[in-house]
Amino acid sequence: MRWHFIARIIGILLIFLGLSMIAPLLISLHYHDLARDSFIRSMGITMVAGLILIILSKKLRSDNYINQKEGMATVALAWTAIGIFGALPFYFAPEFTNFIDAFFESVSGFTTTGSSVMTNIEGAAKSLLFWRSLIQWLGGMGIIVLSLAILPFLGVGGIQLYKAEVPSPVPDKLTPRLSDSAKILWVLYGVFTLIEIIFLLGGGMPLFEATCHALTTMPTGGFSPKNASIAQYNSAYFDYVIVLFMILAGINFSLHYQMLRGKTLAFWEDTECRFFLGLIIVLTLLVTWDIYGSVYTSIKDAFRFASFQVVSILTTTGFATTDYEKFPGLSQVILFICMFIGASAGSTGGGMKCARIIACYKYCYRELFKIIHPRSINHVKINNMVIPDEVLRSIMGFLALYVGLFVLSSILLAAMGVDMMTAFGAVAACIGNIGPGFGSVGPTENFAQLPIMGKWLLALCMLIGRLEIYTVIILFVPEFWKK
Amino acid sequence: MRWHFIARIIGILLIFLGLSMIAPLLISLHYHDLARDSFIRSMGITMVAGLILIILSKKLRSDNYINQKEGMATVALAWTAIGIFGALPFYFAPEFTNFIDAFFESVSGFTTTGSSVMTNIEGAAKSLLFWRSLIQWLGGMGIIVLSLAILPFLGVGGIQLYKAEVPSPVPDKLTPRLSDSAKILWVLYGVFTLIEIIFLLGGGMPLFEATCHALTTMPTGGFSPKNASIAQYNSAYFDYVIVLFMILAGINFSLHYQMLRGKTLAFWEDTECRFFLGLIIVLTLLVTWDIYGSVYTSIKDAFRFASFQVVSILTTTGFATTDYEKFPGLSQVILFICMFIGASAGSTGGGMKCARIIACYKYCYRELFKIIHPRSINHVKINNMVIPDEVLRSIMGFLALYVGLFVLSSILLAAMGVDMMTAFGAVAACIGNIGPGFGSVGPTENFAQLPIMGKWLLALCMLIGRLEIYTVIILFVPEFWKK
Description:
Chain A is mostly helical and 483 residues long. In chain A, 64% of the residues lie in helices and 1% in strands.
């Protein structure tokens, strides 16, 4: 393990993080709010820490490739470091009284989870609310490069599946410099964000709120500068605009790239995308049927709220336009299960990812087929490509680890005195990077009242979930540190 | 598919089923209760149906081995047929008003689940209560031969793992005659039942109740002739006696056989048994810690109730001595998770089975190890024996199908208007063959109020869970019926 490499990368990231604090600082100056000093201090500490790391570490040469182990350690440590330093503006602000709350909010931001411990959001400094949105947006950028460039290189969790599938924008070697193809996807991400801002402004949403919401839609984050989230506006226009952009954010970004390059049927030709969009349609219709009559008297309203909740949870965004805990059983069961399924691989969404669900289904079918024809050799195919057995093994391992992590974390959280439904809901929402859960962390409540140890645990869950589990868990395997 | 073979086997089983109705008939005559005619009619119909099947089908010769496909179809159809004919005594009795309730109770019995739709148990005819217990006991006999002789031959769900592990009492070929080794295990099963009856009598339980409880403990069934189940007696002695026999029932029966043949360390040398017993100890201590102070003021009571609920759910028996839904979050989370884990493979218990959980854990560890040492070849070992990759694949497929079945059935049940917690709890309890669930099917409630379609669904879940999923699901794969 060449620690100086890792230190240098983290140092560079911290410099960028410090620089990104200029944006909320300007907003603070504009609104004359109380967070100005908080940002100045945070920026100073972050930049100095970054500089120290850079000075102490050696220069990276372009022929110094990072190896797989170092890559994993870098990803996990970088995300943690950014969570810590990104928490400083919260910690120094009067709205926060202790570090764990600030850290929770920061990690929830950078992992694009969107679970919050802030109880009076509208009372907080505007610059702080902007920072909350910005870190989700930056987190989303991190995930795009992570899921389309870094993780395929590290061979983690069956995600290497996408290495072959995505023809152009994935580099074969992870160089210390970010590849050009990642930059193309970032431009796409930025353009989508901009278009959403324009759409929201067009509907009459104030510029500040439109920006904040767009910054948290595209990374499927879900932080809102409003206590009531999107429910605040009670507008069908805003609901559908946000549904549209949540769906776009939940699709593999390389498909957007293919679309732009003229492959108009890219969405349809991709098995995962078909599954993802099909799931949205089927589940929306089921929830509409379930809540029409029992909760909403008009079919239009039922469809509007059904589509929003399904898309918000399935894409792991976590915006709310209503309290789904007041829905009948079927809708609740569907939303709870959506928390585990998640969006597409290669998108900014979390959860298990549709591609893995598809692979798992085909894996099971093959097992049944093998019982009928024991001597048959048949491969699992997705998009007409054979999935190698080691990738399938990795995917099944991922799914098992996901469930195992869910079970273990739920037990730990419940051991801290949290009731069963809240424990299951909070852990599912944090590992899947969704935001709101069930029980006392539902869409109209927040995570503030959870025990301190529980917040640490859930912050860890967000990180593990965001980094595709293997990347973090492997650091706890003694074998990893040998020799 | 040689249907006449299958018909003959089912015919023979129906004759035995009809003969077994003599026992409750005698009890009915002894107590002069109202179920006498019900048993006479049921016996008549069942025997006639059995005879017709035998007459219409060809004679089985000892050289006519059943093939794998026929074996699967036989297992699934036989269990269903027995469920239907075993329901007749309930259907004809005044306590039941419709066939689905009778069928639900019968399937719940034969699959050793123990979920009940009877709301006034103590008001029912004693012979009917005895029948309820007897069918669980007979179901347990079926499971012993199924899990130790039939399924290994069919190669289902990674259970073939035990083929190699169990040296003596597993035959290599499934002949139309039951193997002698299965008979040895049945004797063991009978002796355990007898000893439990003696223990319960020794504590002052009336003979009828002692017999009923022993008949439902050994198959990890959980039907009780008392409305309040074991809570009725409020006796530490009965609680601990039943805990002991539930544990014995949850251990692989071939280990009991090995013990009797002088291998005194058999329990300790078996990885699964160590895991199973260790889990009971750890979870009992956790639940004791959780309910001591919050529910019980004495540590003795806390331990007694904790051990009973943990053992009852983990072994998938389902007896109740208290309402665990009034326990704090940790205990509830633990018990909910126990519903999925289940007892040992080769025992009468249900659920996923400890052996598969161990295999899954080792599978995940191997995946992590592979990331660290990509070129390493390392095998998953249990009991110092290498588990072949195809067995591991089968186990992972089983676990995925189990979860998939749980998810799908929960959605269907919720679509019938059942709330989320009840849907999750009822489905988990039925697939795992446990008995009580959560929500409105908790340990102090029952399944009577569920919608009719929900009862059919749950009865199907019991059958699928009991027959190790693959055996039933495969009948729905079109490929199975080709050629």
